Amino acid sequence: MTSEDNENTPLLNGNRDGVNGTASGKDRPTRKQKLASMLRRLFALHVEKRILFAGFFITLSFSFTQVPIFYVFHLMVCDVFYSNHPPYQGTGDRCSRNEIAAGTATQYSILGMSTTFCGTINLLVAGWMAKRFGPRTALMVQTFVPAIRVATQILGVMAGGQAGIIIFQCTQLITVIGGPVGYILVANIIAGELVEPLRRTVVFGMLQGCIMLGQGIGYLSGGMIGDGWGIRRPFEVAFCSFLLATLYVRMALPFIPATSLSRGNSKGFAGFLSPLRVLAPQKVLLGSGIVMKHHGVLFLCAGVFLGVLATGYAPLLIQMYATAVFEFNQGDNGWLMSEFAFMRAAFLIFVFPFIISNGRKWYLTRNQGWNSGEAEPASPPRLATDPEELEAPIGSLAEEEPVGSSAAKEDEGTAFDLFFLRISLVVDGALTMCAAFATQKWHIYLAAALLPFASGSAPAAKGVMTEMCSQSRRADALNALTLVENIARLATQGLFGFVFAALAEIGRPHLTFFINAAIAFLAACVLLLSRFPPEGSKPMTVEESSDLQSRDPESTEAHEQTRVSRT
């Protein structure tokens, strides 16, 4: 090699183009190659980060239109009003009338009720699609169908008046197939399948934090886009964002076969309602071979229902109380809710993982300290009963006795998640009760900043739920828990709306905070009845339960009668 040769000199066909043997222009990366390299680096990120960004991106797409849609209804109701009344004469806003405000509130309430009703059905549809076609395809549907809905709403904005109102109300039927509730369920299903067991609760919390972050940014940016570029522009931005989100889901998230979710579950219409069967007492197989019933999931869902009943109304309750007592205007409430959303996102993304990881270590250390002085006989290893736990017989190994399963413990320290869930509801009740003592406006802002620090109950409940159920029922378990949360949100709006109105009439609206806190404390007490299955036990599928019953029905029935779990 000559002195002019260096590492850039081609080994074959050593013609050089440029100084010091640099490669020719044909060898330089093109723009397409640079873009492909950038995309490879992007999609080479850990699957957790890709799931979190998907949750943020999709939520951002949904949130662009949440603020402008109210103003759109205000303008359309105003058009309808003046179509039946004389034209406005005078200065100021022609839509600033009590009749128009009442009509806007009525139409927006109808929109909210239809969204909630269709969203509840969307939960079952999204869960069924995830088990039928796979989670990634289901998530693509949950992002592409809303793009069609937003495109139809653009036509409603252009039509205006009564026609625009009818178009907007009818577009909510599209929510049954793809809506703002089903995508959260499918995203959690993907996280539960791809993330390692010890990281599930943390990722559930971070995913919820990314969703809150997307909501906060979407609310602010949607209103700013509408003010700066016209009321139709946020819907156009949301349409393009949904299409990009669908493309991102297809390219960034890995494929999960539908068989991994539907194995051992019912087919057809029974499979469509299979999430409801998760709420029934489960049969678990102990290491000794005895079958027992476990009621932990039932008490967990009951506690979560009461917890959401208490905590789900807190943001709206603070708004109503601040408006009634401290005369907050629309701008004040906007900043208040933005503060609440961003603080909750910051807690779930940064603080919640730290609490879970260190709390599990502390919980294990404490339990080991308690058990160190107790002389416990060594329990025999559990025999491997699943085919995937046994190695294929090779040669003479086929005649050997089955050995104890060497599967690593996946639930080490996850008992802290249930402990944290109970404590979180107690702290939430205490912080909510403290809001009743607010005497100045800054006290309300302080309450909105502190309440998110008790917002880890929802992801903790999801983590506990996935540990209590078998792998084949994990999707149904998350679906059932999300359905319980959705029903609780419906109930809390009616319950505390009536309670606040009744107490406000007698001049004591602050007592609503004490009632809210009492329900949160009751939820923590109910969760004391929820426990994990005994150590070494295994949740049984429907097929395993029926097979065991058919093999030895009398023995199985006797075991169940004598060993029914009280937890």
Q: From the coordinates shown, what is the CATH architecture of the largest domain? A: Up-down Bundle
Question: Within the largest sheet, what's the order of strands?
Answer: 2-1-3
Rg calculated over all Cα atoms: 28 Å
Poorly predicted runs of 5 or more residues: 14-23, 375-408, 555-567
Shape: globular
Termini gap? 79 Å
How many strand elements? 3
Beta-strand content? under 5%
CATH-assigned homologous superfamily of the largest domain: MFS general substrate transporter like domains
What would the average pLDDT be, to the nearest integer? 80
> Number of folding domains?
2
CATH topology of the largest domain: Growth Hormone, Chain: A
Order of helices and strands: HHHHHHHHHHHHEEHHHHHHHHEHH
Major beta sheet summary: 3 strands, antiparallel
CATH class placement of the largest domain: Mainly Alpha
Helical content class = 55-70%
Notes on the structure:
By secondary structure, this protein is an all-alpha fold. 67% of the residues lie in helices and 2% in strands. It has two domains: 44-258, Growth Hormone, Chain: A (Up-down Bundle), CATH 1.20.1250.20; 263-369 and 411-567, Growth Hormone, Chain: A. The chain has helices at residues 31-43, 47-63, 66-83, 98-133, 135-159, 161-171, 182-194, 200-229, 233-252, 259-262, 268-272, 274-277, 296-311, 314-326, 330-371, 415-434, 441-450, 457-468, 474-505, 511-527, 542-551, 553-562; strands at 282-285, 291-294, 538-539. It has a three-stranded antiparallel sheet with strand order 2-1-3. Strand 1 and strand 2 (291-294) form a beta hairpin. The longest helix is centred in the middle third of the chain and has 42 residues, at 330-371.
